[in-house]
Amino acid sequence: MFFTLENLIYATLSIIFAPGFLLYLLVILMAAFGKSSGITKLYTKIMILIFEWGKHRIEIHNKALENNNKSSNNDQGNDDQVCDDENQDVAPAYRHPKIEFRRSIEDLHGAFTLADIMYFCRSGIKVIVDDEVTQRFDAAELPSWNLLTRTNNHYEFISWRLSILWGLGCILRLGILFPFRLILALISLTCFFVGTALIGRIQDEKSRRKYYCWLSLAIFRMMSRSFSSVITYHNRENRAKGGGICVANHTSPIDIIILGCDNCYAMVGQIQGGLFGSVQNAMSKAEHQVWFQRTEMKDRLSVTKRLKDHVEDKSLLPILIFPEGTCINNTSIMMFKKGSFEVGGTIYPVAIKYDSRFADPFWNSSKETLTRHLLNILTSWALVADVWYLPPQTQQPGETAIEFTNRVKSLIAKQGGLVDLDWDGQLKREKPKPALMKKKQEEYSRRLLNME
């Protein structure tokens, strides 16, 4: 029996695609049931060793450059010394007196003097040079290069071994991992849209919620596998329970996937467009979610009422809220909105900390779309994160909502190793409010008048 060309093509395609199909099927099934082969953890451990080796090579290169510069400066200094000796009789050296400013804010007593403004000038220059607010809206600075092109805009040749390693890394990430991850992500999204549409047709609310929880856990775990995620959950006994409110620091919409791999939540958040908006609509078909426009007062009042009703019904899913209201670059935590802390009930704080050596998890929505952000992560090494579930918190007698909010925020910042800032994260999109500017002006005037 002779094989035709058509049969030969079918046989070749079967040999090529059959292993791939089985691999995807295995990954999907293991993700759906929360199992792991341990390959990704081993892969990240190997990458850490490579990063450390690359860091060592870069340090050696920088030290060599520094020694060369010192040698050049010493030679130049010797030449300058000869010139100074020759010209010593011509013009005597004149040394400018060193001006030192030793006054502090405690010294601003009595009548105003011109020197009193020096403290404020210095403070203003310090803010311009090292702004602790706007730098939180850019990607965090890496301690060393992680062999990604996007984190090394100014290319500098260091060694052939490091360059070859970088080239092999590009082939691995873009030629092997990215296609596999992209297909897995598309499969996950397709299953998500189809699954939520089918579950939304179930009339019985209890059954619908049960199937939605199973689908949510399975899909989010599949999506996390498409990022080669390695997530370590700490103190899982403190996970949010029905009727509770889970609050966490916010770095990216991927935070939802990270937390959704370990628990099922109802979501509260800003209405979005594009891909994110489609996901929001799909989630709303299967389970009650709360999406709102922050600029609409009636939407904000509706959210508050929904939260109050929610905390009274323990049969409902815990609600997931990001009180910062915007994404921060995972180096700090900014002002929490107090709305979710005013409704009573139990607050379940969660701290999320990413390892930025493997990928930049921060989504700067003012510079890139969500699709672009996801592609950056899909083409990175992996997504490594630690999640800490903190003990449940309730408002103490005599404690105001603002004090309760700040206390929970401080707990999250301390556990996650984040800088605790009191600034509003909406400064990323809006100019400072006149009330904030007036407050700073009053503070400065009190200092000048010694009213503190």
From TrEMBL:
GO biological process: phospholipid biosynthetic process
GO cellular component: membrane
Pfam family, one: Acyltransferase
Subcellular location: Membrane
Pathway stated in the Swiss-Prot or TrEMBL entry: Phospholipid metabolism; Lipid metabolism
CDD domains in the cross-refs: LPLAT_LPCAT1-like
Keyword Iron assigned: no
Record keywords: Acyltransferase, Lipid biosynthesis, Lipid metabolism, Membrane, Phospholipid biosynthesis, Phospholipid metabolism, Transferase, Transmembrane, Transmembrane helix
Coiled-coil residue spans: none
Principal place of residence: membrane
A molecular-function term among this protein's GO annotations: O-acyltransferase activity
Listed InterPro entries: LPCAT1-like (IPR045252), Plipid/glycerol_acylTrfase (IPR002123)
Record domain Phospholipid/glycerol acyltransferase: where: 244-355
SMART domains in the record: PlsC
Transmembrane segments: 12-33, 158-176, 182-199
Family: Belongs to the 1-acyl-sn-glycerol-3-phosphate acyltransferase family.
Name of this protein: Phospholipid/glycerol acyltransferase domain-containing protein
Organism: Helobdella robusta
Gene behind the chain: 20210442
